[in-house]
């Protein structure tokens, strides 16, 4: 699978980049045996598991009479599943599930002519194909997640406990937003807000995030009474609002102590300010296609209406920020916290920066509309997500983007003349073909690689374990689908030779016939002819009769299988005569005899044994079975045989000494009876 472009040994020219100093992967082997270790035996177990047998050297029994273990069998799981995020079985499900949408999209793409390709890529129908492809791939990467939102059951629970998503699904959806979903272009900020609500928890493993801060703060809420006295409370609200989690921000605001029944009288102004901010948050204009029932804000589907509403909303925030009621608020933590929240809502860059923890949160907070460069996205995908993402995400990156498509499909000299898109598919096909459970879907991706795909497909097929019937049949089917007739024929020949050498001669002949290998079939036919021809006894012939029947009369060597097949038919007719007295059966046997003796493929050394076996036909009691002309044919054969016996190289048949005279007498008798009959 993708190999070197030259034999120079220079890794810089390899199709698949090879690290000059690869770092070996270490797997623990805790066998617990004391040295010395004499032997290790390693074999494959199920899946990606090695079975390792550790054997110690024989040791004398311990002084206390206890014998130490002489060995141990362990299983070591080999895995490259991104720290266990997706297990091996799930990876195989993803690999198999990806085949159909990928192949369908390639078929639709290839059906578009070169001249109309640009217009087709801009069509609504093509964008729908891309989105269908993206949704099918996305569905393989995990189930839809519930966004961080209110938990109604517990007043102080601000985040629901949901199953952690995968990085693959997060990356795929992000590329879909920017590159594939045309309908989301008008409201990318809102799509990004939803995306971050689902996947911000993934960043928590390496750095602080709004999600992780909320999780930590939620633990403190259980024990805190007056939450408004603590800076983390106001920081949490500002952070949630900065990245658009309005529902959580409003719920946190309404945990403010001024909402307590016993506080309403003395903190009326403070409570009014808190509620005013909460209402403004709830009325935030949102430019998006729709807004769920559990989402706060007011939905606008077109930009002009949204801009008007946004300006009005910002004016209301500014008016509240300049209100005289702030002077009447005696709780300075509340006053400062609410003021900072208003600045966040007004888009103050310093407030947004302070409220977020990493660039993605800040990017979304600023509503940046800049697409990352395609090359950068490719590099990040390759480094973080591996070959599967690279092979499938290219369709999103190039959707409607001619420049990105040119980048991916430009032939690269340093890659041996193939393009980046083909390289990604070749690498992924290499991964698939290296596993016994996924190799059969590698051809889908190799067939889409115009430069090296078909050549590498031939290599993949030739390296399969063809001694297994299911593998062979699948390989032949793949060859048929991709019109690899020569490869299919070679696979059949390899299987035939293997089966013949291992005693499965019938199977070997069958696959040679399927491969139409006349050369080897004729060799086998000659081998059979030479073996059977040494003696036409019942035992030697029955041993090979099934194989002769399987070979059929097609093999065209002179005096070969054509004779053996005709002889087989003659013997069957003769056996019917011996088992009964029917004249019709005897007549058919006589006709088979004449046909066999007239046929030029019948070797001369077999004439006498055949005639000797037919003595009963010559002496048939009812009437002569052979007419005068047929009897003369047999007499001529006997005359030729008598002349041939004079040659020094003549080999006598293994028959009784009187066989020739018995045959001559019987034929002469039949001739006389035939003359009288006529």
Automatic annotation (TrEMBL):
It is found in: Nucleus, Nuclear pore complex. Residues 1-16 have a biased composition (Polar residues). It holds the Pfam family Nucleopor_Nup85. It comes from the Eukaryota. It comes from Coffea arabica. Component of the nuclear pore complex (NPC). InterPro entries: Nucleoporin_Nup85. Belongs to the nucleoporin Nup85 family. This is Nuclear pore complex protein Nup85. Residues 1-25 are annotated as: Disordered. Its main location: nucleus. Functions as a component of the nuclear pore complex (NPC). Keywords: Membrane, mRNA transport, Nuclear pore complex, Nucleus, Protein transport, Translocation, Transport.
